[in-house]
Amino acid sequence: MHLPPPVHGASVVGQNIQNSKYINSTFYSRYINLSASSKVEEVGSLSIKKLLFLISNWIHCISAIIRFKPTLCYITPTSDGWGFYRDFLLVQSIKLFDVKIVMHFHNKASKQWVERGINRWLLKHFFKNVKIILLGKELYEEKSSFISENDVFFCPNGVPSVNDKILKTNKKIDKTRFLFLSNMMESKGVLILLDACKELYRRGYDFRCDFVGGWKDVTEELFQNRIKKYNLQDKVYAHGPKYGDEKKMFFENADVFVFPTYYHGECFPLVLLEAMDYGLPCLSTVNGAIPSLIDDGLTGFTVPQNDLNALVLKMIWSIENPEKMIELGVFGKEKFESYFTLEQFEKNLTSIFQECIKS
């Protein structure tokens, strides 16, 4: 599995599994870190350092299988690119030892990559005689040509609940506070959200929008220049990355969480689970398994990717219906506690492992 660093969805889930008392008391497990990158910027790139890591990691994995003789091998592979070829080699090598394999996908492949003839051939063999775990049913279509749904488990991720406060269902909202929290990447929806704020300001709405996250392809200079261009200095604020109590403060002070991502690899953003834990209604996009997270109109809203007008209209509705948004946040918190806690994830994953072993 992938473990931090770098910190991203798959590595956070991997660390939660490695540290799980529930899973480790049920199974006798050994863990090997598949992360070849030490920074988020390095993910998806190829280098001599990574090639050397690939060779040593392959030797480590095969040696562990020979010595440990596992009943079940759990792997978190990459869906496309050079990472898939690396994982293809590892999975096909493990199959030689007649070990049951379950693969847990935290990413998805691009359609163009899947449609290439050589990749389709490799995928056909990759998914032969294995079970897989997907984060939501929306993600099965991509893999439906290569593996039967009978060999697929659906298991949503879970995160530790950090908000033990009773939700204030009668709080008064004078000015709606929107919160974006993720890496400051254009494909995560940073600039389209900024354009939406421009439109809200043009229409005379009073609001505040906080952006929290590390600077990536959207640089601080670019962002601040656009704020000045749009005259949003009193409406929009960028705070850089925040952790611990500082991060918690932003969730507690927000009214609506906005995440208009169109990132091609988006599957199941953990930040949406964090927002639901704080009782925030979520406004995001139809991307990956996000529709499994957000019940449209009940716990928040989903809009088409890159649809500025749809995003603006839902943000306006949020401003004009503060009581309804509080209600949506309460339903979101209830859904989080029922399906998306770390404890529920550990139980679901344990059941899947047990079923894979019996099959």
Automatic annotation (TrEMBL):
<dbReference type="Pfam" id="PF00534">
    <property type="entry name" value="Glycos_transf_1"/>
</dbReference>
<dbReference type="GO" id="GO:0016757">
    <property type="term" value="F:glycosyltransferase activity"/>
</dbReference>
<dbReference type="InterPro" id="IPR001296">
    <property type="entry name" value="Glyco_trans_1"/>
</dbReference>
<keyword id="KW-0808">Transferase</keyword>
<feature type="domain" description="Glycosyl transferase family 1">
    <location>
        <begin position="168"/>
        <end position="328"/>
    </location>
</feature>
<protein>
    <submittedName>
        <fullName>Glycosyltransferase involved in cell wall bisynthesis</fullName>
    </submittedName>
</protein>
